[in-house]
Amino acid sequence: MAEPILRVTNLVAGYGPISVIKGIDFNAYEGEIVGLVGPNGAGKTTFLEALVGNIEIREGQIHFLDKRIEGMSVMKRRKMGMVLMPQEDYIFPFMPVKRNLQVAAVLSRDEEKEESLDFVYGLFPVLKERERQIADTLSGGERKMLSVGMGIMTNARVILIDEPSIGLAPKIVTALFENLKMIKEETGKTLILAEQNVKILKIADRIFGLEAGKIRFCEKTEDLDEAVVKELYMGE
Amino acid sequence: MKDLYSEIATVVVLLIPLSFILWGGYLQQVTGFLYLFVLQGYVAWFLLFRTGQFFFGYSVTMAMGAYGTIVLTEIYKWPLLASVCVGSGMATLISVGMFFGTCRAKGFYVGMASFLLALLFPMVVEGMRDISGGRSGIYFTRLDSLVGPDVLYLLIVLFTALIVAGLFAFMRTKTGTILTLISENDDLTQTVGINTIKYKALAYVIAGLLSGFGGALYVNYNGFISSIDVDAFTTLYIFFIPLLGGRKIPYGPLVGALIVIMVPELLLSIERYLRMIMGMVFILVLVFLPEGVGPGIEMLLKKIVSRFRAAPVTAVES
Amino acid sequence: MILDGLINGLIMGGILSLPVLGVAVVYGITGVPNFAIGLIGVFGGFTTWYFLSVGLPLAILIGIGICFPIGYLLQGVLLTPLSRKKEADSTLFFLITISFGFIVEGAIRSVFPKPTISIAFPRLGAIHIGDVSADGFKFVALFVAVVALIAIRLLEQHTKAGRSLQATSQNLKLATLIGINTNQVFSLAHGAGCSLAAVGAIFWGALYTLDMGTGWHLGFMGFIIAVIGGIGNIWGGLISALLMGMVMSFAGYFLGGVWQSVILYGIVILVLIISPRGILGSERSI
Fold first, then answer.
1. B15 CA to chain C: closest CA distance, Å?
2. What proportions of chain A, in percent to the nearest 5, are helix, strand and coil?
3. How far, in whole angstroms, is CA A83 from its chain's centroid?
4. Domain ranges in chain C?
């Protein structure tokens, strides 16, 4: 089997004196969807922020494309091809939809931009419909789509998304997840999704279970026992 | 306990210059002037660092106390004591007025409004130059002629030391402790059920009163005041006094006032570059010594002392 | 007389709108209220005066040009690193920029031979509107201000740099995640803001005089007018500048010199108390 595109060993990270992540091993292969599930407060957001470089880690190593990136700035990791779409404030509110998408492609070449834009519009036709609308006025679901679209426009190889389904109605969640699956299949990008919603099991290739800063299990989705997931949320 | 010792020590140090009267002359003059700003500096220290309120209007409150005293004494022929009291009272009105006007605003805007007031005030003084003398100023020698410069000097040193001691004592009372709580976490204190507005208003009353009184003292000691003396830069300098000297230590404002007042005095020869140097000093302190010069010196002293002790002890330590 | 006041007010407002714009750009994007921006602009004005011998257009360019690196470096060397510290808040920046203003003031005094100057512009002859006549040059000033504003708006919308600027001011965290070099954006914005202030100062120096007091005045006025217009909001800044220009003009007529500014500051204080976000609201988050 090929080497993972992203490999994390013994990651310890947190805020101030508190360690939220207490020693995590994690990996992701190119072209797969990895789900990071866990209840509130498990450390999912902290983990993603540590991956992308927003918070400094205390211990551990992160290998991306066979390079160690723990010391690298957010910008450098972004140039290498990793981007995070955060859980809150994930759009530029006072710009039109199209501008949001264009800005996201700031590091790409012009030809790539056009291609990516067409792809995003194909995936989310409503964004094309509303391309001149100010982003702030979109509905919750549309905003999430915009955020995912922006992630695609960045041309990153690895897209981290923090709770893509939060605040969305169930039907919209299903549609969004279907779209994420399509992205993986048609672009070969790696998606790492931190999610509370167990529907993620439907599209993820592998699942890591996170609780109180530690990984409880790591399985291929097909091998995963639902009971194990339930236990993660209900507690021990 | 350690705090109490520093506080007592500070008050004692403040009283030492009472002896300067024996030498008189320049030393006495400059110290008197310095003390007027030490006083204002402690007011700023109290209001900002002990209660967490950003107020840039010290020049205004000081001016109200000063001009109030002059106007009431000279024009309306009131007895001096009454003028001083009413002048200070007017200063209090300003400080409390600013407080209530800005208590809905958050953070920086609070400071902004009072700073704008400080910018505005000298212009008002200018506009009312028939009464206030505007830029050319007014002379005022009532107290000077009543008791003479030496007694005046002693009064200033005494009042300053008393006020500082009073502030220290006040901070140890229940009310003072509540104010400290508010400065550390306003919202939490409110949640606990304390009416923070009441307490903050009290802090502003105290600050306005003391600053106005200080202004009255200023005009009596200096014998003169003009709109230039109470412009926005005065209020900034006053604000910098506790900031430079050290916000968490009792003698911070003393150190700060020494820097802010004495450095320009000493550098009068290169007056041209004065503002530039003061600006650089301010920035350096703000960036590298956010705790103030006082703690910086304390740390330096500690290092020196520990180096003296290190020699015979190293054998034991390793 | 009303027409006279209106026109004068418009012109004054127009010129003021440049430092206002400078402040708005800097604050809107970096979140730093730079009160020294007026003085930096005045430094540019003095520089232009100093180099008048090489011809007016070149002198103007030099004056504007020198303010850009001042703002750029101020932001990059001092303000950006400082903003990463936890305790950094608006008041700290306020104090720092004012202190920097002291430094600039000192620099002007030590570098240039005269403390007060006036820049000699070619007189364009009077223009008559109704029975009011004003120097043609004043209208040029107003015109330049409006053009500058439009130019900025266009640059923002249609260039890559402009979009990065917009993005940074609307959502700093996301902009960084996307890969925008936000530190660079900050420094550029600050440099641009200072250059704008320089343009304003140069015009002021041509129509009136330039000295230290003017520097502080422009800086403070720029800020308070920006606040009234909703800080960060460029059009709001222009409108409020024009409005304030007229207020000042009329106050000047009816009440005399000093009260002009008193009324202005008084209005701003009122606005801050009643509606801290300014009358026209803010396009950018504060």
1. 32
2. 40, 30, 30
3. 8
4. 2-119+138-274
The complex scores an ipTM of 0.85
Q: How many structural domains are present in chain B?
A: 1
- Say if the Cβ atoms of C109 and B124 lie within 8 Å: no
* Residue B187 to residue B197: CA distance in whole angstroms: 11
pLDDT tens across B47-80, in order? 887 777 778 888 888 888 888 888 888 778 888 8
Which residue bears the tokens 């004056």?
C63
Task: Give me the residues of B, 297-316, that contact C with CB < 8 A.
Answer: none
- Which of A74, A92, A98 would best serve as a mutation to test chain C binding (most C beta carbons within 10 A)? A92
Fold of the domain built from segment(s) A1-80+195-236: Rossmann fold (3.40.50)
Task: Give the number of other CB atoms < 10 A from CB of residue A172.
Answer: 17
List the domain range (segments joined by +) for residue B128: 2-317
- Could you say which DSSP state residue A164 is in? T
Say if residue A236's pLDDT is above 50: no
Pick the residue from chain C with its C-alpha nearest to B232: C216
Residue of C157, C177, C186 best to disrupt the A interface, most CBs of A under 10 A: C177
What is the tens place of the pLDDT at every residue in C253-276? 676 666 777 777 777 777 766 766
Q: Does B283 touch chain C (CB under 8 A)?
A: yes
> So what's the pLDDT on residue C284?
45
* Whether C203 contacts C18, CB under 8 Å: yes
**Average pLDDT value over all residues in chain C:** 80
Residues of C in Cβ contact (< 8 Å) with A79 = 179
Q: How far is A178 from chain C (nearest CA, A)?
A: 24
Looking at the complex, does the CB of residue A103 fall below 8 Å from at least one CB of chain C? Answer: yes
Q: Is A37 within 8 Å of A229 (Cβ atoms)?
A: yes
**Residue C117: beta bridge partners?**
C210
What's the CA gap between B240 and A101, in Å, rounded? 47
DSSP B173: S
